[in-house]
Amino acid sequence: MTPPRGEHIETWDLVIVGAGPAGAATALGALAHAPGLRVLLLDRADFPRDKCCGDGIAPHVLDVLRSVGVHDVTDGWTPLGRLELSRHEQRVTGRLARPVWVIPREVFDARLVERAVAAGAVLRRHRVSDVSWVGPRVVLDDRIEARVLVGADGAHSIVRSSLTSAGGGRRALAIRGYSPTPDSRRGRQIIRYGDRRQPSYAWAFDRGDGLTNVGYGEFVDDHRSPGGEAPTRAILLGELDRLLPGSVEDGVGWRAHHLPLSGWRWRQPDGPVLLTGDAAGLVNPMTGEGIYYAVATGVLAGRSAARALAAGSPAAAGAAHRGAVRRLLGRHLKHTWVASRLTRRPAVVDAGIRAAGRSQHVFDSLVEIGLGDGRITPRLTAGLASGLVAGLTIHPPQPDLR
Ligand SMILES: Cc1cc2nc3c(=O)[nH]c(=O)nc-3n(C[C@H](O)[C@H](O)[C@H](O)COP(=O)(O)OP(=O)(O)OC[C@H]3O[C@@H](n4cnc5c(N)ncnc54)[C@H](O)[C@@H]3O)c2cc1C
């Protein structure tokens, strides 16, 4: 154990590494619970900053933000009410039970940070490069002591690496860019499943301002799944253009990034160091959605931290956070793990699309699992089974739910 070399160590109640959605939500959750808390929000970047993402904001994100007093993050942006899912000739276009939003992360994340600062957090530009333990104390870069530390520092989290028991899971790699929205893709989110490492897919999410967020992603670390060589930038862009012709040529702002996918069981060690969002390995393995998990686990981490600090036992925060996240997401994560295993088989993806075309309930249930915290219900299972059977017997016309 190395003692800190710095002469002056500043102490904060709560230090959050990373000011993306998970970090800002942590600050909001803590300060909504205990407005007087001393909260330091660190990020290596200045805001506004870009983040490689599909920019899809599920309605569940807004529910969580409302619970901590944030009501206006979508102001000025257009809601989308339709979702199209397809694989080869199977296709369904359905009306979403609740609209989604497509807001560039440069805008969305900066708004959340602004709200966190307005609530009382201190934002500082700082790249954390060392997390050490000095007895029971957690010290960053020899100079910042955290009574409770929250890792919200994304897919390559340094805080997560400092916790040997946090483990690591499966990953996907995805690329995104922005291209002009053609009339045919206006007002909707489009997902087209691919043929490489399943369930790979390309997307086109209309932002509503003349530009569409386009991208493609697939698993990277599962050697058992078919699909050939590891994805390169050229392969990712090639697949995107094959699945959504014309997306690449006029696209700008191409960036690729890893997605740490959630597994069967979510782990959070005991102690005063908590993990949230991508740093906690929480990205939906079916859809690549992570913003809902980031804000939901952020708010929970903030609350658990504030309660543990108020009780004078910061080391109890880890167990409290683990319990809170498992209560909210535990069963859902198991169900998405099962669903992601099943959808490696193209026949299951086809059956899902077919069943969603026949039943609004199946369509809504799949959306809930992919965007929020839905589960595989008996009714959904029956719908998927009938979709599988239908695939063996008939080829219905392409459905279009109203
Ligand atoms: C191509 C792609 C498309 C996606 N599309 C969607 C989508 O449409 N909808 C959806 O819900 N999710 C999507 N996701 C997932 C989503 O982007 C993440 O789940 C989400 O950003 C997680 O938020 P976070 O706050 O945990 O991490 P991040 O948003 O990654 O924020 C982490 C922050 O930590 C900072 N940081 C990192 N290291 C340090 C350090 N050492 N010191 C200080 N600061 C540090 C970074 O600068 C960053 O600001 C997509 C991901 C990818 C890659």
Can you give a write-up of this model?
This protein has 402 residues and is α/β, with parallel strands linked by helices. It folds into three domains: 10-81 and 102-169 and 263-337, FAD/NAD(P)-binding domain (3-Layer(bba) Sandwich); 171-259, D-Amino Acid Oxidase, subunit A, domain 2 (D-Amino Acid Oxidase, Chain A, domain 2, 2-Layer Sandwich), CATH 3.30.9; 340-393, no CATH class. Helices cover 35% and strands 25% of the residues. The chain contains ten helices and 15 strands. It has helices spanning 21-33, 59-67, 105-119, 158-162, 233-243, 291-310, 317-342, 346-358, 360-371, 378-393; strands at residues 10-17, 39-43, 56-57, 79-87, 90-102, 122-125, 131-134, 137-140, 144-151, 171-180, 188-193, 201-206, 211-219, 252-260, 273-275. The strands form two sheets. The chain has an eight-stranded mixed β-sheet. Strands 1, 2, 6, 7, 8, 9 and 15 form a seven-stranded mixed β-sheet that branches. α2 (59-67) runs parallel beside α6 and α6 packs antiparallel against α7. Flavin-adenine dinucleotide binds next to α1, β2, β10, β13 and β14.
CATH superfamily of the largest domain: FAD/NAD(P)-binding domain
Regarding quaternary structure, what we see is single chain
Residue share in β-strands = 15-25%
Radius of gyration: 21 Å
The backbone outline, from C-alpha atoms, is globular
The residue-averaged pLDDT reads 92
Which structural class do the helices and strands define? alpha/beta
DSSP summary, beta strand count: 15
What is the H-and-E element order?
EHEEHEEHEEEEHEEEEHEEHHHHH
Unreliable stretches: none
